[in-house]
Amino acid sequence: MGRRPSVFVRPVTMDVVLMSAQGQTVKDITTLMQVGEDYVRDVIHAFN
Q: Looking at beta carbons, which pairs linking 8-13 to residues 24 or more positions away fall under 8 Å?
């Protein structure tokens, strides 16, 4: 039997997209959402 993962990813929410649409910068979103800049850019890119 395999080892159970101890770390899980945060579910992708529309919060990042909505914050971006409201004019928040990537840096502001990372601070508010406590995620990395790459994650924020990836979510916005995937949405676009």
A: 10/35, 12/43
Structure tokens, 9: 């990813």
Residue 16 and residue 33 in contact, taking contact as beta carbons nearer than 8 Å: yes
Tell me the whole-structure pTM to 2 decimals.
0.71
Separation CA 25–CA 11 (nearest Å)? 21
Say if residues 7 and 13 touch (Cβ distance below 8 Å): no
Residue pLDDT, tens place only, 18-41: 999 999 999 999 999 999 999 999
